[in-house]
Amino acid sequence: MARRWAALLAAVGLVAAALGLAAPAQADTQQLKVATYNIYLGADLGPLALAQTPQELVTRAGIAYGQVVATDFPSRARAISRLLRNDRPEVIGLQEVALWKKGPLDGRLHTTYDFLDILLRELRSAGLHYRAAAVDTTGTITLPISAKERVSFTNRDVILVQDGLPVTNAQSHLYAAKFSFTTPFGVTFTFPRGWSAVDVALKGKGKGKQARVRVATTHLQPGVPPIRNAQGQELHAALAQSPYPVTALGDFNALPTDATGPYGTFTNGGYDDAWQTTHGPGDGFTAIQDPDLRNLPSKLSARIDYVFYQPAHLSAVSAHLVGDKVKDRTPTGLWPSDHAGLVVRLRLQ
Q1: What is the mean predicted confidence (pLDDT) over 90-112?
Q2: At what angle do helices 115-125 and 73-87 cross, to 10 degrees?
Q3: Which of 68, 208, 310, 330 has CA 20 to 30 A from 246's CA?
Q4: Is the backbone peptide bond immediately before 288 cis, with ω within 30 degrees of 0?
Q5: Mean pLDDT, the chain, as a whole number?
Q6: 254-268 per-position pLDDT tens digit
C-alpha cells in the first residue's frame, strides 16, 4: 500500500509539473516588495533663485504656485494609486511629499494641498491601505505671491507601510550638509535634506522565526555635487550601524557613472543596485519630465532613483518601472510625476 501511495504522489507531482503549477515556497523563503517614487512637488522652484529683486521674487513665486495648481496633484495621486495597485509593495519610499498652504499676507495660512493626505485617500479608494510610518520634514519656505497673498511650501520624505505590517524603530534625520544661497538683494535661503528609516518585521513561514530589514529612503541635494556627495556618505555611515539587512531607496540625484558620488559610495560600500542586478546597466530611466508634466514623448533619460540592497543578506528578484508609459498619464494628459517610480522585489538570504 505504501508503494502505491508513493507512486500516486509521484504521479500527482508529474502532472502538476506538466501543468506548470508552482511548487510550494520553501519554509524560510521571505520576500519584501519595496518601491521608491519621487511624486513631484508640483512646480519648478529653480527660477526663484534667479530673481534679482524682491518684486521679481514675488512674481516668480506666484508663477510657481500657479504651476502647482495646474499640475493637479489630486488627479496625479489617483493615477499613482492605480499604478501601485498592480504591485502592492509592502513598503514605499516617497520623495517631494509637499504640503502647500496659502493665505493673506498678514493672516493665517490654510492648507491647499497636503500631498500625503491626498495620496493616502486615493490609495484607500484603490483598495490599498497604508500608513505613514516615518515622515522626514526637511523645512518650510514662505513667500508672498502677490500684493495680498502668500504661500508656504513644506518638503517631506515619507515611508509608507501596508497596514498590518509590523515596523519598529521609525526614525528621521536631517543631514549636516545642507545647501544655502543668498539672493542679490540679501535674502538667504537654506534647504536642508534628510532621510528616514524603519525596521520591517517579516515572520518566517513554518518555524516561527522573525527576520527584520531596515528600509531607508532619502532625497539628496540636486545640482550641488559636493553637498550631495557628503549627504550620501552621511547616509551610508548611518546605515552601517544597522543590526539588520538594509535596503536604501530614493532619489539620489546621481548617475550610475558618477563613481565619486552616492552611486559609488553605495555600490563600492557593500550594496548592489537592484535595477542593474536584474536588467543590466541599460535603460531604467527615472528622470525627468517637463515641469508642466505635459511633454510628449516622454523625456525620461536619466537613472537617478535607486533601490540599493546588501547582497550579503538580500537578493534582487525583480525590478520594474511605473509611471513611465503614455497610458499611465491622467485623463487630462499629465504624467503622474516628473519621475518614474521603481518597484523591486527583494528576497532575504
Answers
A1: 97
A2: 50
A3: 208
A4: yes
A5: 91
A6: 999 998 999 999 999
